[in-house]
Write a structure and sequence with these properties.
With about 80 residues, the protein is of the alpha+beta class. The chain has 2 helices and 5 strands; from the N terminus they run ββββαβα. The termini are far apart.
């Protein structure tokens, strides 16, 4: 089973600008909002300043087990490591 670390949409679906996201480890073949294996963090772009909470230990554990980062999550992680 290939595991990918990617965003899972959550939040208020009636107000489209209020979406927030979970950073999850999920099987590569599953749909975006299907059941995840583990929650690694949260990302809320609607807040000012943007909220990005990431559990580095869980991220390292999943990467060590062979999980791949999606391009979006990879970019977010790079931004956080720069700051």
């Amino acid at each position: 089973m290939e595991v990918r670390i990617r965003l899972q949409r959550a939040g208020n679906k009636s107000a489209k600008s209020r979406y927030n996201y979970r950073i999850v480890a999920i099987s590569k073949s599953k749909a975006r909002d299907s059941r995840h294996l583990d929650v690694i963090g949260h990302y809320d772009p609607a807040r000012n300043p943007v909220v990005f909470d990431l559990n580095q230990e869980k991220l390292d554990k999943w990467i060590g087990q062979g999980a791949q980062l999606s391009t979006t999550v990879k970019g977010l992680v790079k931004k956080i490591k720069k700051a």
